[in-house]
């Protein structure tokens, strides 16, 4: 039975995902051949909605050869809810558009059969045409081609959302239209009618009062034309079901409102099971709302939820953008329930729950673990999963993708010659702040010697929240120029038996506070970072572009100006300084200043000189040039391990390595980067 349902829904999905060559359409797009790149752009912005909803697109550039133009256009317009016209002079110069397409579109628009959306691509006299009576998506005096790239993106985003909203308004994702014939509504009405709380007026009013406002208003309007006594007959129940089915997930929302009174009675379970089967879903609206109530009190760091979500969705499913997820749990659950369960044989929301249960077990939250497992097993039973299917699902959910790095950023900002303002951020791999971690530092001045104790306490709080994810924590110190060589990697933290330097357990890097604050430096910085990423993607990139890494030889550059000019070339992404940039040397400070001004994102240098400067030069050169840049973080960490194992604090350079690793994409908010106010300085 389960395989049969998969085949049935697969057939429905094949129809729903029909390409633009089909004359059955929700969205009708017309443009000239000269503007096909804009057509492609619009389709890209609509793709997100097409994956979530049933949106079929027809466009005139994909008309099937051999068909009569008028006939195919007429068929497309009969089902379309929105017509999008991509306007330019080439559009109005196209005979096929003007003679065969535009008259039918305008007629449909005037008859209110379709919403016309005009997007002005390039300058033209739009106001002179008949289309001027239909409001354009953008100001005709500011066509798309005259906008900056960011403005164009915003225009396409607004247009795509407007298209999707108009389709939704005119069609609705109705239960009857998508999933069944009229007898589906009759069966649903019988099942609702069998539930105790629908059989008398008072309890029924309690149920209906929980529905969305627009549904309640339509039900009330219907009642005003009918008799509604204490009891309800089947005909009235059927009409109520029909009204609810005209709204997206309307029947499931009615079932959820009923569940809040009736709970999972036998009659309600039969109803829920039928809605799940008819809708070809893994879980109904009620069941994912039930899961939402279980997860709502959870106070885990939010990257754990996002990671479980990303690992549970199929590869071809478009993942929600993190910046779109305000209340992260509800959008994630809603998205997981939209994924058809025949998609590669996956059960995404069930897998998601298993992953969360494993996290709860790791965090010793036994009650939450048991509640999630109970919910999971009940849904497996509802769907009739076999023992083999359950076993395969457990195996898949136990697999974890390559763990993503997390970043603890600690910024030291000089208030006076002896005190610093300290701020911190905990970011995930997408540079988004991780919530629910209580990672904060009191806003007061600190002496430099007080910061190690402050940092140890901060790291302990991170460990309490991140648990096993601490292994992936990268620690980044954002420092003013005079502290770039400060031995922050040797800050000590308490192990089980003794103190250990943080460089032994974590990747530790320094970053430049001045460069973060100077916007004028960021263009060159970003370009060189892109070069670095290209090198890291291709293991052979260094041999192709051997100037990406540059080893500085102080004696070769007598003038600072020549060295600065060299660094500002487009090819250098990594700089090795075999010399020690002493904080008391104006020339050395000039070297670091040149590195920052040139936007070089990676640099490696020693804090102390050994007795063998030639050996230091050779050692650093081999360390960097004989390995891909992607391995540099691990190599530096390895050198720190080897230095500690050697027991020779003076001779092993691993004790004294400073690594600048400055990612221009990982920046705190601008207001958080602002320098301390003069009042803060006086208070110090």
Summary tags:
684 residues, alpha/beta, 5-stranded mixed beta sheet, 4-stranded parallel beta sheet, disordered N terminus, disordered C terminus
How many separate helices?
Answer: 30
Largest sheet: 5 strands, mixed
Shape: globular
Give average pLDDT, whole number: 80
Tell me the span between the first and last alpha carbons.
Answer: 74 Å
Q: Assign a percent range to the helix content.
A: 40-55%
DSSP summary, beta strand count: 15
Strand content: 5-15%
Radius of gyration from the CA trace?
Answer: 32 Å
Broad structural category: alpha/beta
Strand order of the largest sheet: 7-6-5-8-11
Spans of at least 5 consecutive residues whose pLDDT stays below 50 are 1-23, 172-181, 541-545, 584-588, 678-684
Fold and architecture overview:
This protein has 684 residues and is an alpha/beta fold. Strand 13 (574-576), helix 26 (586-598) and strand 14 (602-606) form a beta-alpha-beta unit. Helix 14 (285-295) runs antiparallel to helix 16 (329-338) and helix 25 packs parallel to helix 26. The longest helix has 23 residues, at 149-171.
Helices and strands, with pairings:
Elements: H1 2-16, E1 27-30, H2 36-52, E2 57-59, H3 69-79, E3 82-87, H4 89-93, H5 95-110, E4 115-120, H6 149-171, H7 175-179, H8 182-193, H9 201-208, H10 213-223, H11 234-245, H12 250-262, H13 266-278, H14 285-295, H15 302-312, H16 329-338, H17 348-362, H18 366-383, H19 387-398, E5 406-414, E6 419-427, E7 446-447, H20 451-466, E8 473-479, E9 492-494, E10 499-501, H21 502-505, E11 507-512, H22 513-517, H23 522-537, H24 541-544, E12 549-551, H25 560-567, E13 574-576, H26 586-598, E14 602-606, H27 613-625, H28 632-646, E15 657-661, H29 670-673, H30 678-683
Parallel strand pairs: 1-2, 1-3, 3-4, 5-8, 8-11, 12-13, 13-14
Antiparallel strand pairs: 5-6, 6-7, 9-10, 14-15
């Amino acid at each position: 039975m389960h395989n049969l349902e998969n085949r049935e829904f697969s057939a429905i999905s094949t129809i729903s995902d029909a390409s633009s060559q089909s004359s059955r359409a929700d969205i009708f797009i017309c443009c000239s051949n000269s503007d096909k790149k804009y057509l492609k752009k619009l389709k890209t912005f609509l793709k997100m909605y097409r994956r979530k909803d049933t949106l079929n697109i027809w466009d005139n550039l994909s008309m099937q050869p051999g068909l009569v133009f008028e006939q195919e256009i007429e068929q497309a317009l009969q089902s379309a809810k929105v017509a999008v016209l991509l306007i330019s002079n080439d559009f109005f110069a196209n005979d096929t558009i003007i003679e065969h397409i535009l008259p039918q579109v305008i007629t449909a628009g005037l008859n209110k059969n379709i919403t016309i959306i005009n997007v002005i691509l390039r300058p033209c006299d739009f106001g002179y045409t008949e289309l001027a009576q239909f409001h354009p998506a953008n100001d005709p005096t500011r066509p798309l081609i005259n906008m900056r790239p960011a403005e164009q993106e915003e225009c396409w985003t607004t247009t795509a959302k407007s298209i999707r909203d108009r389709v939704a308004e005119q069609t609705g994702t109705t239960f009857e239209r998508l999933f069944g014939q009229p007898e589906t509504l009759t069966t649903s009405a019988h099942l609702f009618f069998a539930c105790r709380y629908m059989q008398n007026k008072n309890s029924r009013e309690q149920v209906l009062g929980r529905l969305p406002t627009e549904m309640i208003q339509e039900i009330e309007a219907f009642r005003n034309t009918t008799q509604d006594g204490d009891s309800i007959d089947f005909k009235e129940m059927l009409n109520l079901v029909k009204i609810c089915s005209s709204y997206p997930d309307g029947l499931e929302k009615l079932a959820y409102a009923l569940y809040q009174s009736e709970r999972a009675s036998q009659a309600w379970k039969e109803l829920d099971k039928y809605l799940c089967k008819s809708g070809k879903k893994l879980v109904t609206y009620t069941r994912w709302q039930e899961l939402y109530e279980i997860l709502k009190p959870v106070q885990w760091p939010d990257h754990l939820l996002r990671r479980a979500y990303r690992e549970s969705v199929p590869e071809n499913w478009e993942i929600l953008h993190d910046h779109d997820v305000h209340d992260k749990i509800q959008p994630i659950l809603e998205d997981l329930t939209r994924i058809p369960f025949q998609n590669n044989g996956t059960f995404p929301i069930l897998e998601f729950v298993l992953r969360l249960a494993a996290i709860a077990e790791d965090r010793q939250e036994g009650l939450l673990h048991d509640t999630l497992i109970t919910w999971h097993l009940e849904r497996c039973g509802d769907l009739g999963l076999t023992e083999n299917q359950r076993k395969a699902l457990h195996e898949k959910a136990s697999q974890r993708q390559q763990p993503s790095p997390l970043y603890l950023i600690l910024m030291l900002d000089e208030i006076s010659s002896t005190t610093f303002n300290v701020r911190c951020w905990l970011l995930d791999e997408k540079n988004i702040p991780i919530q629910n971690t209580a990672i904060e530092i009191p806003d007061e001045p600190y002496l430099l010697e007080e910061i190690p104790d402050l940092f140890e306490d901060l790291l302990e709080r991170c460990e309490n929240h991140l648990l096993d994810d601490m292994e992936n924590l990268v620690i980044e110190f954002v420092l003013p120029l005079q502290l770039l060589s400060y031995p922050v990697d040797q800050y000590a933290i308490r192990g089980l038996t003794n103190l250990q330097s943080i460089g032994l357990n974590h990747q530790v890097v320094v970053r430049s506070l001045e460069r973060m604050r100077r916007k004028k430096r960021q263009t060159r910085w970003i370009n060189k970072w892109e070069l670095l990423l290209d090198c890291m993607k291709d293991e052979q990139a260094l041999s192709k572009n051997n100037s990406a890494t540059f080893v500085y030889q102080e004696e070769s550059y007598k003038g600072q100006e020549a060295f600065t000019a060299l660094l500002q070339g487009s090819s250098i992404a990594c700089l090795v300084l075999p010399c020690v940039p002493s904080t008391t040397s104006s020339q050395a400070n000039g070297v670091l200043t040149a590195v920052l001004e040139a936007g070089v994102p990676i640099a490696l240098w020693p804090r102390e000189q050994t007795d063998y400067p030639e050996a230091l030069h050779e050692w650093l050169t081999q360390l960097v040039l004989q390995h891909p840049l992607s391995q540099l973080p691990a190599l530096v960490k390895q050198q720190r391990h080897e230095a500690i194992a050697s027991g020779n604090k003076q001779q092993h350079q691993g004790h004294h390595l400073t690594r600048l690793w400055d990612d221009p994409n990982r920046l705190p908010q601008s207001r958080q980067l602002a320098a301390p106010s003069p009042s803060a300085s006086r208070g110090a």
